[in-house]
Each structure stands twice: as structure tokens, then as C-alpha cells.
Amino acid sequence: MKLIEKPAKFITEVNQEMSKVSWPTYEELKDSTVIVIVLSLLLVAFIFASDWILTHILKLIF
Prior knowledge:
The chain is mostly helical.
């Protein structure tokens, strides 16, 4: 293959594969984003509470 044919073939194959992709709808994307944000905030709250509790327990011991 020539130097110019390889990138052209690659771009053609990428376009073919991208046409097979099942893209989410706006509603699916919005719902997934909300779930990720809420779960991230819950994880942050859990880690913060765990850290705060363990810090105070260790202060009582030492």
C-alpha cells in the first residue's frame, strides 16, 4: 500500500464502524449523567463521614 492509501483506508474503516455504534438518546444520556453525579456525591459523603469518624476515634485513643 502506498503512504496515502493507508490513512484513507483507516478513515473509511472508522466511518464504517462508527455507523454501527448505538448512540444513547438525549434522555438516556441525561439519566446516566444524573446517576453518575448522585452516586459520586454519595461516595464522597461516605468517605468524608468515614474519615471524620475514624479521625475522632483515633484522637480518643491516642
